[in-house]
Write a structure and sequence with these properties.
This is Phosphatidic acid phosphatase type 2/haloperoxidase domain-containing protein. Keywords: Membrane, Transmembrane, Transmembrane helix. The protein is mainly alpha-helical and 402 residues long. It has 13 helices and no strands. It has a domain of 270 residues. Helix 8 packs parallel to helix 13 and helix 12 packs antiparallel against helix 13. The protein is elongated and about 100 Å long.
Length: 402
């Protein structure tokens, strides 16, 4: 069963401003995480204690083979996602999302490295386990950007599953950077939020590119064909001028007929030539009585003056899109948004609640204590919440694309 291609959704000011508001919200969360985890003593202590507890749990609860495999999980996930994205791009020929995804990868990784190495400086309060600044995480950013690119090039009917697996794998990658001792929890959470903002910008860029290419003659092949035809017509005109001489003049075809009041061949029903112009009693073809009026009323979907040019609408063979129930008519399949809003809210509430409870405890959350384990669990939940929020934001705006 084949369906007519879905037209590009028109781009309005609202459809541009709303994704930008989502980007501002995600990156505002990055700024809040930056201030709490870097500029306050409480945030630094909670972050470093979570890292110390993760290292202690790594040696006590996980076998060596798991720890050896955890060192290579980010690379393996990145390679698998990149290969699958390449396969989907070739099969579905979604070249624009692939190119935009590459730009998103470069932009997100540049943003992470610029923040870490140039813009941000972690003040020393005397409680740091790692002296240099590791905020945000480069390992998490690299893997998460490839997973978002996979979501961009995924076929519409696989976007929900791709979004679900994407945010889960991104969250696991961020947790493993903490378990391996590479980063603190806030480093991974901020990296995921940065990637989420760039992902929303990528969706906006895809929408604008689709709208631009949907205009008549805007595709590169159409532009090339138009330029080629114009150049061919110019060469033919020059050849004709050389054959007849520069001073020769040939009047346009049909101009003498129009001067004598006769209808031209290309416009047999032109106003003022062979037929009365306006519709009404003066024009027998458009009169309100007689067989002409009856034949004209039989084609209510066309206003062409020539009855032979009228066509029935909808055209023969057209079938209603069965996926139109998921969105507005004509915009193709709209996958469900994953992860759900309830998942994002639950993870955020648990992470913030545990972190606040640990911060208000009178004793320190040192490694091995109940407070220390609650602290590292809060860090893991925060990473999962950042991944769920970022992937939901990207999937929400990607849903409107066919």
């Amino acid at each position: 069963m084949s369906f007519p291609p879905a037209p590009a959704r028109p781009v309005s000011a609202r459809s541009v401003i709303r994704p930008l508001v989502t980007v501002v919200f995600l990156w505002t969360c990055v700024g809040i995480a930056t201030y709490i985890s870097l500029m306050t003593m409480t945030g630094q202590s909670l972050d470093d204690e979570a890292l110390a507890q993760a290292k202690a749990d790594r040696n006590n609860f996980f076998p060596w083979i798991f720890l050896a495999a955890a060192q290579h999980v980010p690379e393996l996930v990145s390679i698998a996602a990149a290969v699958l994205a390449l396969v989907w791009t070739i099969r579905t020929r979604r070249w624009i999302p692939a190119v935009v995804g590459l730009g998103m990868i470069l932009g997100a990784n540049f943003t992470t490295q610029f923040l870490k190495r140039v813009l941000l400086d972690k003040p020393d309060f005397g409680i740091q386990l790692i002296v240099h600044n590791s905020f945000p995480s480069g390992h998490t950013t690299a893997t998460a950007t490839i997973l978002v690119t996979l979501l961009l090039v995924a076929p519409p009917h696989l976007r929900a599953k791709t979004a679900t697996w994407g945010w889960v794998l991104a969250a696991i990658t961020g947790m493993l950077t903490v378990l391996n001792g590479w980063h603190r929890p806030s480093d991974a959470a901020a990296a995921l939020l940065i990637v989420g903002g760039w992902g929303v910008l990528a969706v906006l860029a895809i929408r604008l590119a689709d709208a631009a290419l949907a205009r008549p003659g805007a595709r590169p092949t159409d532009v090339y064909r138009r330029v080629r035809d114009k150049m061919g017509a110019h060469r033919e005109n020059l050849q004709q001028r050389e054959e007849r001489g520069d001073s020769a003049y040939i009047p346009p075809t049909g101009s003498q007929q129009r001067q004598h009041g006769q209808p031209s061949q290309s416009h047999p029903y032109q106003s003022g030539i062979g037929q009365p112009g306006p519709r009404g009693p003066g024009n027998p073809r458009f009169s309100t009585h007689g067989p002409a009026a009856a034949s004209y009323a039989d084609a209510p979907y066309s206003n062409a003056p020539n009855p032979q040019a009228q066509q029935q609408y909808p055209p023969a063979g057209y079938q209603q899109n069965p996926y139109a129930q998921y969105g507005r008519p004509g915009y193709g399949y709209r996958a469900a948004v994953r992860p759900r809003k309830g998942t994002v809210i639950a993870l955020l509430v648990l992470a913030i609640g545990l972190a606040v409870a640990v911060a208000l405890m009178p004793s320190l959350a040192v490694a091995g204590t109940w407070a220390g384990r609650a602290n590292v669990i809060a860090g893991y939940l925060g990473i999962a919440a950042a991944a769920a929020l970022s992937w939901r934001s990207v999937a929400r705006w990607l849903r409107s694309l066919s």
